[in-house]
């Protein structure tokens, strides 16, 4: 067989092999074997040195055609086999489009946050600023500037978590009163603020007490502020929160930082005052502590108590949320049980 015949034979034989092959690995073996440096094609071409100068270009050109033809055939077969493999893989991966997809759990605005935001909106509508205080507070602001000096018995009611002798987790939001008053510039107008936030007490947790809860402090200072302003303001708040036909009542109380001091009750929103399980038969629900800011508290914050007067109040939004939503244990708010929290998905579902 001359070289041309050998090339023709190799072409035929290899094309038949390519035709028969049914997997990509074997096809690759053929490619390496035939077209590689140690393959039969190279071997045949080695014989070209014995050809005459006339024959050599003819055989060389034919050899190139054979090489190209085989390379093309291999590539073509490779495309086919790859396509088949892909089709098979897709068939194996059956997707049941009727199965439920992977859902992500959507969070809910916590009911306490919703309650606080609702109260904030009411006060923003009355021109109040919202001021944030410090959760870690100085003894001076938490107690002293609120007229509760060291060894004052009122400290017993608000035992705290101390970080050092002078630093503690605040027991109420009242220190924000002092921090705001000392900065306020009355030439710019009256002071009207609320301050919501977390507070902490060394209380034993039970259905109505938590060692961490929330308060919303309110403070208004200007010339000529009276108890009438306090009552009117709280009436607006409590009617918006508990219903327009609610009434409020002020009972004498004691806080070292207000004089006079009151506890504020709202007529029961469930029974309307008849007496029921929500108001424990009294017809009234105790909702917050308030009073006229003590002149000494004004003075300690650099305010002329002869010229200015004001009222303050401290409301527990946890208590408000419990009453409005019939939650009988404050601890539910802090357990972060999704089954409880997602029941109050009020905003998101509207
Ligand atoms: C105060 O903390 C005063 N700073 C409120 C105040 C501000 C009075 C301004 C006058 C002027 P009291 O200790 O009563 O007051 O707490 C206020 C409210 O916080 C209570 O009515 C109650 O709703 C809530 N509260 C108190 N202790 C707890 C507790 N351990 N767990 C849950 N809520 C509590």
Q: Care to describe what's here?
A:
With 350 residues, this protein is α+β, with helices and mostly antiparallel strands. The protein folds into two domains: 91 residues; 232 residues, Bira Bifunctional Protein, Domain 2 (BirA Bifunctional Protein, domain 2, 2-Layer Sandwich), CATH 3.30.930. It is 42% helix and 19% strand. The strands form two sheets. The protein has a seven-stranded mixed β-sheet, with helices on both faces. Strands 2-4-3 form a three-stranded antiparallel β-sheet. α1 runs antiparallel to α3, α1 runs parallel beside α4 and α2 runs antiparallel to α4. The chain is rod-shaped, with a radius of gyration of 43 Å. The mean pLDDT is 92.
Q: What does the radius of gyration come to?
A: 43 Å
Number of domains: 2
By CATH's scheme, which homologous superfamily of the largest domain applies? Bira Bifunctional Protein, Domain 2
Could you report the average pLDDT, rounded to the nearest whole number?
Answer: 92
Apparent shape: rod-shaped
Name of the CATH class of the largest domain: Alpha Beta
Annotation, overall tally of beta strands: 10
Bound molecules: adenosine-5'-[phenylalaninyl-phosphate]
State the CATH architecture of the largest domain: 2-Layer Sandwich
Low-confidence stretches: none
What is the CATH topology assignment of the largest domain?
BirA Bifunctional Protein, domain 2
Largest sheet: 7 strands, mixed
Count of helix runs = 14
| Percent helix range | 40-55%
**What string, H for helix and E for strand, traces the elements in order?**
HHHHHEEHHEEHEEHEEEHEHHHH
Alpha-carbon distance between the two ends = 90 Å
């Amino acid at each position: 067989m001359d070289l041309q015949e050998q090339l023709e034979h190799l072409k035929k034989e290899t094309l038949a092999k390519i035709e028969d092959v049914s997997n990509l690995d074997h096809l690759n073996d053929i490619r390496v074997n035939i077209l590689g440096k140690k393959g039969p094609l190279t071997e045949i071409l080695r014989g070209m040195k014995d050809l005459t100068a006339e024959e050599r270009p003819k055989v060389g050109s034919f050899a190139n055609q054979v090489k190209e033809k085989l390379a093309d055939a291999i590539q073509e077969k490779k495309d086919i086999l790859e396509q088949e493999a892909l089709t098979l893989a897709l068939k194996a991966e059956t997707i049941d489009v009727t199965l439920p997809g992977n859902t992500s759990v959507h969070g809910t605005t916590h009911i306490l946050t919703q309650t606080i935001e609702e109260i904030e909106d009411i006060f923003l509508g009355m021109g109040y600023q919202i001021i944030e205080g410090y959760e870690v507070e100085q003894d001076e602001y938490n107690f002293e500037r609120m007229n509760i000096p060291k060894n004052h018995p009122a400290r017993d009611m608000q035992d705290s978590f101390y970080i050092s002798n002078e630093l503690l987790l605040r027991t109420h939001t009242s220190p924000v009163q002092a921090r705001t008053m000392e900065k306020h510039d009355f030439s710019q107008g009256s002071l009207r603020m609320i301050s919501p936030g977390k507070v902490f007490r060394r209380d034993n947790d039970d259905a109505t007490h938590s060692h961490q809860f929330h308060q919303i402090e309110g403070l208004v200072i200007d010339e000529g502020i009276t108890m009438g302003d306090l009552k009117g303001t709280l009436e607006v708040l409590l009617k918006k929160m508990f219903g327009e036909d609610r009434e409020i009542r002020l009972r004498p109380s004691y806080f070292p930082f207000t004089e006079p001091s009151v506890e504020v009750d709202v007529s029961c929103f469930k029974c309307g005052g008849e007496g029921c399980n929500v108001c424990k038969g009294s017809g009234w629900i105790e909702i917050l502590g308030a009073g006229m800011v003590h002149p000494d508290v004004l003075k300690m914050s650099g305010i002329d108590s002869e010229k200015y007067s004001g009222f303050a109040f401290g409301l527990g939004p946890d208590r408000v949320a419990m009453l409005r939503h019939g939650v009988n244990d404050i601890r539910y708010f802090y357990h972060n049980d999704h089954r409880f929290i997602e029941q109050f998905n009020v905003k998101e579902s509207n």
